[in-house]
Amino acid sequence: MQLTWHDTCDGIDWEQLSDLYRAAPLGDKPPEALRTVFGNSMFVCFVFDGPAMVAAGRALADGVDCAYICDVAVLPAYQGQGLGKGIVSALVERARGHKKIILYANPGKEAFYEKLGFRRMRTAMAVFENREQAIAWGLLE
Ligand SMILES: CC(C)(COP(=O)(O)OP(=O)(O)OC[C@H]1O[C@@H](n2cnc3c(N)ncnc32)[C@H](O)[C@@H]1OP(=O)(O)O)[C@@H](O)C(=O)NCCC(=O)NCCS
């Protein structure tokens, strides 16, 4: 397996990224929305096996205080081989110097992030556009 790692959005096929999230699965994320959110993220990470995109993630950051990691996903056939860990570690490394690096895990994925040094926040709160869905997914009380 010859993997290549990319840390810019140059040449990214957003349809391919959308397919990756659907397969992972991490939901239905339209290509144009992905272009916007990745384009607005200070740190991005993509992994390719030849022409196939097999893993991705990004972090929003303000350059000093706070970085927020999101959209971390690995194609099912490539899961369990250290790629998720590699993506998160690369984003954490690039965000080093920020006072805090935060994220919220999909329910069931908390232990994955705990292994990478993340700890539960006692006072994390959020406003979700679709509150009922966030409750149904187990993200909100
Ligand atoms: C969660 C995900 C990104 C993990 O990526 P991965 O490449 O399969 O994970 P890795 O192989 O890098 O695992 C790193 C470590 O975390 C552990 N781990 C992975 N998934 C885990 C889970 N769901 N629960 C607990 N531990 C987990 C691995 O056993 C490994 O442990 P080790 O270092 O002691 O060997 C991947 O399963 C995925 O894309 N899932 C679907 C999308 C998703 O839910 N993304 C997360 C959004 S919050």
Mean pLDDT: 97
CATH class of the largest domain: Alpha Beta
Hetero ligands = coenzyme A
Strand percentage: 15-25%
Fill in the CATH topology of the largest domain: Aminopeptidase
Number of beta strands = 5
Count of helices? 5
Judged by helices, strands and strand pairing, the structural class is: alpha+beta
Task: Tell me the domain tally.
Answer: 2
Radius of gyration: 15 Å
Residue share in helix: 25-40%
> CA-to-CA gap between the ends?
42 Å
Task: Specify the CATH homologous superfamily of the largest domain.
Answer: Gcn5-related N-acetyltransferase (GNAT)
Shape: globular
For the largest beta-sheet, the strand count, sense and barrel status come to: 5 strands, mixed
Topology as H/E string? EHHEEEHEHH
Side by side, the strands of the main sheet go 1-2-3-4-5
Second CATH tier, the architecture of the largest domain: 3-Layer(aba) Sandwich
Low-pLDDT ranges: none
Protein name: GNAT family N-acetyltransferase
Domain N-acetyltransferase: 1-141
InterPro entries: Acyl_CoA_acyltransferase (IPR016181), GNAT_dom (IPR000182), NSI-like (IPR045039)
GO molecular function: acyltransferase activity
